[in-house]
Automatic annotation (TrEMBL):
<dbReference type="GO" id="GO:0003755">
    <property type="term" value="F:peptidyl-prolyl cis-trans isomerase activity"/>
</dbReference>
<dbReference type="InterPro" id="IPR044666">
    <property type="entry name" value="Cyclophilin_A-like"/>
</dbReference>
<dbReference type="InterPro" id="IPR002130">
    <property type="entry name" value="Cyclophilin-type_PPIase_dom"/>
</dbReference>
<keyword id="KW-0413">Isomerase</keyword>
<comment type="function">
    <text>PPIases accelerate the folding of proteins. It catalyzes the cis-trans isomerization of proline imidic peptide bonds in oligopeptides.</text>
</comment>
<dbReference type="Pfam" id="PF00160">
    <property type="entry name" value="Pro_isomerase"/>
</dbReference>
<feature type="domain" description="PPIase cyclophilin-type">
    <location>
        <begin position="131"/>
        <end position="281"/>
    </location>
</feature>
<protein>
    <submittedName>
        <fullName>Peptidyl-prolyl cis-trans isomerase B (Cyclophilin B)</fullName>
    </submittedName>
</protein>
<dbReference type="InterPro" id="IPR029000">
    <property type="entry name" value="Cyclophilin-like_dom_sf"/>
</dbReference>
Length: 283
């Protein structure tokens, strides 16, 4: 028969083993939770990268592969940043897009780029199948983009084109337009440099220019921001949408998108189809 002391020792050993098993289970739960959190973080980052990457669209999908060749890279023209003149105007450089993209549409180039106005604003009326969206371009903030946008509007470049992509994410809500082919790969036959700073942000009501992701690849595609959007400062902010225009955008956004661009770059065509009937320079 075991003594009381032996029974106490045996009980203590059983308790110690139970405590060790509980501690091991707790360690496993913490390890599994850490793995789940890490995976979720990677998925969220990848999703954000994919959504942002989708704002590039003025280059042909095959251009990226072609640009890896040193010969193609050397032949590709480079869009230089704007330079400021003594009279306050700026010199803009609009260079030919030699990527071989078959979706580019000839539209000439903005006139007198060496003396582009860098003060004041340009008012546009974007008449769409879902309503009128007044736009204001800021020449002081983005003189080259404002001049190009207004020029293309005067050339009726945007008329009859669809807004091909909508994104309805919590921290990224935009309607993307400006491609006359409606493919998401179209634009003019010229390109120019981005006009951004490290402080560039994209709050609700922003008009910003899309690009291919490479420096100096801004063209005609633009996006209208209806939700404060967390994006890297890589896209030229060219102006703003007024409250009446935002009301139209909110109606479009409320209908959502068809998910045709999921999982990458994200979003899809608007469920309420949006066609730019006309883009008119008002003042």
């Amino acid at each position: 028969m075991p003594t009381n002391k032996q029974r106490r020792v045996a009980a203590q050993r059983r308790l110690q083993r139970q405590l060790e098993r509980r501690a091991e289970l707790a360690r496993r739960r913490r390890r599994n939770l850490l793995v789940v959190v890490t995976v979720l973080a990677v998925v969220l980052v990848a999703g954000a990268v994919a959504l942002v990457a989708g704002l590039g669209g003025d280059d042909d999908p095959g251009a990226a592969a072609a640009s890896s060749s040193s010969t193609s890279a050397a032949a590709e023209a480079t869009a230089a940043p704007a330079t400021t003149n003594a009279d306050g105007t700026v010199g803009c450089t609009y260079v030919p897009d030699t990527s071989g993209n078959s979706n580019l549409v000839e539209a000439g180039t903005p006139p007198d780029p060496a003396a582009t106005p860098a003060t004041g604003t340009v008012s546009l009326l974007m008449s769409t199948s879902q309503g009128e969206i007044p736009l204001t371009l800021d020449r002081a903030k983005a003189p080259c983009a404002a001049a190009s946008f207004a020029y293309l509007a005067q050339q009726r470049f945007f008329d009859g084109s669809p807004c091909h992509r909508e994104v309805n994410a919590e921290s990224f809500g935009v309607l993307q337009c400006g491609d006359p082919t409606g493919t998401g790969q179209g634009g003019p036959t010229y390109k120019f440099a981005e006009e951004v700073t490290p402080e560039t942000t994209y709050p609700r009501g922003t008009i910003a220019m899309a690009n291919s992701g490479s420096p100096g690849s801004t063209g005609s595609q633009f996006f209208l921001v209806f939700t404060d959007s967390q994006l890297p400062p890589d896209y030229t902010v060219v102006g703003t949408v007024d409250e009446a225009g935002l009301a139209v955008l909110d109606t479009i956004a409320a209908a959502g998108n068809d998910g045709s661009f999921e999982p990458s770059p994200g979003g899809g065509a608007p469920n309420l189809p949006v066609t730019i009937d006309s883009m008119t320079v008002v003042a």
